[in-house]
Amino acid sequence: MDADRTGDQGFFGPDSVTWQVHGDPMMWIAGIRALYLQALHPRTVRGVMQNSDFRRDAWGRLMRTANFVGTITYGTAEAAEHAGARIRKIHSKLSATDPDTGERYPVDEPGLLLWVHCAEIDSYLNVARRSGFPFTDAAADRYIAEHRVAAALVGLDPDEVPGDQDELAAYFEKVLPELAAGTEAREVDDFLRTPPTHPLLVPARALLWRRVANLAYAALPPYAHELYGRQPPSPAVVTRRLRLTGTLLRCVPARLRWQLPPKHIIRAMRRLGPGSRPAPYKVMR
């Protein structure tokens, strides 16, 4: 398989909103927000906890998710299809049990896949916009619509996936009664606030990681704060913190940030030329 086939723009390409947004450093905070949000769907988080060693391999899971997003965004069409097929194959073999009813259900139920998808897209969009990434409403709608492609890659019918902000808001309104901060959600919350680490790194965890996790948590919607039961700062304070963090992280040269493995953006630029470089101003075209 030639993952760097010259000229192959993949499923999104340099003219897409997704191409520009996913190169932003705030996507890491958005990814943690997505984990907090996804954990509030009991059937979904139960499938994760019963089929993976989340407590020992949470970082690996986060990195695998980041690698998948990077591959489908910046990789060739072949690489994206391969990544999607791998996810679908893994999910097709897994199931979970409802401890209250004894029901056994597959983890690739469309409703569960849709929740994971919508929680991710909502988190990426919310954090990017509030941290200062330039987004018009039209660009936000384009971003949501573009990700019907990503939804199809994991096995969803793209016609059943929200395609703009209004449809995404309606979806969350519909699913809200299903959400709860159950035992598994509390375990995810505990882990994200105080992940296990080497004793020598405990000071760094308190100084750096807790700030990141707290900011990701603070960026959650009001209903999520209510379910978790912790009082958040005011939305205006959270937005100021997100904007400050975004400003600081964007001071790190993009070329330096993009050198981190697995270098999806660098490889895409090598394949498609310097004009494919992600840049916030391109969203406003």
Automatic annotation (TrEMBL):
Listed PANTHER family: BLR2777 PROTEIN (PTHR36151), ER-BOUND OXYGENASE MPAB_MPAB'_RUBBER OXYGENASE CATALYTIC DOMAIN-CONTAINING PROTEIN (PTHR36151:SF3)
InterPro entries cross-referenced by the UniProt entry: MPAB/Lcp_cat_dom (IPR018713)
Top-level lineage group: Bacteria
Domain ER-bound oxygenase mpaB/mpaB'/Rubber oxygenase catalytic: 19-250
GO molecular function, one term: oxidoreductase activity
UniProt-listed Pfam families: MPAB_Lcp_cat
Protein name, as recorded: DUF2236 domain-containing protein
